[in-house]
Structure formats: C-alpha cells, structure tokens
Amino acid sequence: MVVASVTPERNERIRALGIPVIDLSWRREHASKLIMRACEEFGFFKVINHGVPKEVITRMEDEGEEFFSLPTHEKQKAGPASPLGYGSRNIGFNGDSGELEYLLLHTSPVSISQRAKIICRKDPIKFSCVVNEYVGAVRQLACEILEMLAEGLGLGEKGSFSRLIRDTESDSLVRLNHYPPNSTTGGNDITDALGRRNGNKIKDGKGGRIGFGEHSDPQILSLLRSNDVDGLQILSSDHHGGGVWVPVPADPAAFFVNVGDALQALSNGRFVSVRHRAMANSYSPRLSIIFFGAPPLHAWISPLPEMITPETPRRYKSFTWAEYKKAMYSLRLGHNRLDLFHADDEGENVDFIESI
Ligand SMILES: C=C1C[C@]23C[C@@]1(O)CC[C@H]2[C@@]12CC[C@H](O)[C@@](C)(C(=O)O1)[C@H]2[C@@H]3C(=O)O
Ligand SMILES: O=C(O)CCC(=O)C(=O)O
Ligand SMILES: [Fe+2]
C-alpha cells in the first residue's frame, strides 16, 4: 500500500521574495500569460482590480467579525466542525490543531440557509444573502482566472476547468478563519471544544505561533482575502529540493490565489499546488476568508488529454472528487495526498481508498 508522504521537518528558512501580482485590468493575453507563469512556478499569485465589489467584501467581513465576537457558548452552538460548522483549534479529524477558530461552510444556497439559522440567530436571512452574494462574486472571479488558464494552455474548450466549479452541484466551500492576537499581549484567548485555553503554543522552527499548519489546498482553485494583518506564508521550493517560507504581506484590497491539488492533477502537473500556512503571531486579530472552488462529488479528475504528450506522459490516475475527499479526510493536514494518485503506482491507491 502507498503511504502519503509528510513533508519532513525542515531547518526553516524564511525569506522575503516578490509575489507575482496580476492586475486584471491589463490586456487579457498579457494577464493570462503572467497568470500561467505564476501557476507554473509558484502555484500562487495576487490579483488586484479583481472586480469583486468592496461592499460585498465588507458585508461578508462584518458578518464574520460579528460571529467571532459572540460569547464562546454561542459560537459553539454552530459546532463542532464535522467538517462543516464552527471549529476552534481542531482542524480535520486526525489530530491537527492551530491557533484559530473558524467557520467552514458549503457554498450551496440550501446548506448556507440551514447553517445561517444557527450561526446568526439575529438575522439568518441577511447572513445567507451576504454569504451567497460573496460566494457568487468570488466564484465568478475564480472562473475568469480558470478560463484565462485554459486559454493560456491553448485548450479548445475555455470552460474545461471553470465548468467544474460553476456546476450547481459543485462541492465548493467557504471558510472564515479568525486568528486571535497573541495572548501574551492581552488579546482574547480561544478555547477548544473541551474548553482548554491556548496555553501550549504551536511553534514553528523560529518561535512563531502556527495558526494553520503547512498544507496544500485539495480543491481546484482557492481565493483568499484577509484583513490588514499579516500571517500567510507560502513555501517556495529552491533548486536543491528544499524550501523557503515566503511571508505574504496582507493586502485587504487584493485576493490571493492558490492552485489546488485537483488543478495540479487536471493540468498533469503543469500547474503546481502551493504549500502554505498561516502564522498567528500578531498583536492584532487576523480574519481571513477563503473560497475553495471544487468540482461536484461525482466529477472525474483526470489529466486533460491535451496535457498528455510523449514529453509529458500521464502523471496522475483518474479519480472522482469524492474519492479524493475520502483520502484527504483520512490523512493529516500536511500530507502530500496527491502522491497517492500517481499514475505509476498501478492499482495501489485503490487498495488505499478501499481500506479507509
Ligand atoms: C486535516 C484536514 C483538514 C482539512 C481536511 C484534512 O483531512 C486535510 C486537508 C484540510 C483542508 C485544507 C484546506 C481547507 O481549509 C480544507 C477545508 C480542505 O478542503 O482541506 C481543510 C480540511 C478541513 O478543515 O476540513
Ligand atoms: O487563513 C489563512 O490565511 C490560510 C488558511 C488556509 O490556508 C486554509 O484555510 O486552507
Ligand atoms: Fe489553505
């Protein structure tokens, strides 16, 4: 059986490097070329002039702030996250934790309206409207970016990627992460489901508090936006197979775009899913909102035929999104779960999936 690899402990290196910035008001072919390059080299870039209205963002951020400012016992009514709902410190089901609390929601309007009744008892209809409006605008931005990537690859069908997250049965998620300030500065602590306070700080190699540990996003494309508090870092690989953590300065006017594992598989490895994490080392609370664009559960993820050539043979097996989710929820946050679906491990991922 194949066992997914966990990235080994690194002697951590942190370096300020330039992050690709794409201005969506540029000429389309120019922007598309730069987006392609960013997805090939880093799997990460920042977009400005993205067209998501400021008011839509502000309304969503206000709902998040209002929810996280509720007393703990009120927030806990929307939890524990399983995986959807309110979570505090615990991430997933396999022992990962971080210095944060969060709300994880499915983006289907039916699911949002059901959750809204518990998350926002005061005005669930307003909460649903605000989230639906945000999701609609950000999904549209994700689709535009995916269509530019399809054009950049010269695919006959520009909707090859975007149709998966436009689908009404798309399994896309939206997550609000709240990282409280460092408690030694007098900030408000968070408690986990058992009421434990954050006494045991989760540290990186340099004494920083890890808010959300190293991982890649499993979906197709993630769009992250945060308030003006820093914390996000991406792992940039050097040419010796090592990596360096690159801090990403906060920019509330921008969206940060992550290539996810599913896009790496669809593009046969041409686009790389970026490993990233969030530090919670600040004096101010950090609020991030992430849209994870995903296919429907029954959709097949398979390298597109155009991406398989004699020079670039098939790297990944075909799998459904449901199979991938099953594998990911059985693994830890930091696992390289796409490793389980390499084309050269004939039949082995099937054993793995059947055994979980
Ligand atoms: C530990 C886990 C949490 C996670 C599911 C997983 O088993 C491995 C991937 C994690 C992740 C990272 C990106 C997103 O925040 C997330 C919602 C996702 O789709 O995969 C989380 C999962 C989660 O928190 O439920
Ligand atoms: O909150 C952040 O900045 C990053 C969180 C993240 O990577 C995630 O929720 O998948
Ligand atoms: Fe992430």
Tell me about this structure.
It holds the Pfam family 2OG-FeII_Oxy. This is gibberellin 2beta-dioxygenase. Its EC number is 1.14.11.13. It catalyses: gibberellin A1 + 2-oxoglutarate + O2 = gibberellin A8 + succinate + CO2. With 356 residues, the protein is α+β, with helices and mostly antiparallel strands. The chain has one domain: Jelly Rolls (Sandwich), CATH 2.60.120.330. It has nine helices and 14 strands. The strands form three sheets. The protein has an eight-stranded mixed β-sheet with strand order 1-2-10-7-12-5-4-3. It has a four-stranded antiparallel β-sheet with strand order 6-11-8-9, with no helix packed on it. Strands 13-14 form a two-stranded antiparallel sheet. Helix 1 packs across helix 5, helix 2 crosses helix 5 and helix 4 runs antiparallel to helix 5. The site of ligand L4NPZUNZ has 17 residues, from strand 4, strand 5 and helix 8.
Instruction: List all distinct small molecules, including ions and cofactors, that are bound in this structure.
Output: the ligand C=C1C[C@]23C[C@@]1(O)CC[C@H]2[C@@]12CC[C@H](O)[C@@](C)(C(=O)O1)[C@H]2[C@@H]3C(=O)O, 2-oxoglutaric acid, fe (ii) ion
Query: Biggest sheet: strands, sense, closure?
Result: 8 strands, mixed
Strand order of the largest sheet: 1-2-10-7-12-5-4-3
Instruction: Provide mean pLDDT, rounded.
Output: 89
So what's the overall shape? globular
Percentage of β-strand residues: 15-25%
Q: In terms of per-residue confidence, which ranges show pLDDT below 50 for 5 or more consecutive residues?
A: 1-9, 192-201
